[in-house]
Predict the 3D structure of the following.
Amino acid sequence: MAQYFDNVDLKSEIRKINVSIFDFSLSFFTDNGVFCKEHLDFGTRLLLENIPWNEIQGNILDVGCGYGPIGIISAKLTGQPVTMCDVNKRALHLAKMNAKENLVDATILESNCYENITGIFDTIITNPPIRAGKKIVYDILFQAKSYLSSMGKLFLVIHKDQGAKSVIKDLEKEYEVTVLEKNKGFFVIMCKIH
């Protein structure tokens, strides 16, 4: 839990990891206190590999960006404007370093969920911070409606052990929901506004 909100007491040990995805070889700085510091986690990779990128147009928001792989890879794939946000200051510092390292121009903001987000987005992508608790996860998923364009889409990944099936049921009350992929218990989900 602490890693999402306050890691000032955690010793910093910045390292660099290499990630190959699609046709890209990218380098990311990671550190203690950020999610999946050793490698690109399976859920994030699965999410990125199953978004229909040929349909993605317009601006993109990466909520809970961590050290930045989703936003940075989205920018590389689409050339569209990307905004990335997180509540974790260390993660934001790394995301800024990683955008520069990978030659991506992104807007990177400190924001608890959508607190400091303005404007409307065509695509919102998140690997939600499950350990931050259900309230935060649901705030990210359900407040997305207020920040999506009328034809906008929300993409997320969640594991069955983290309640994927009940999350899908709840999402279906607010969105048109499509499961794009299931693999090793992870569900990649696309939501459109009714």
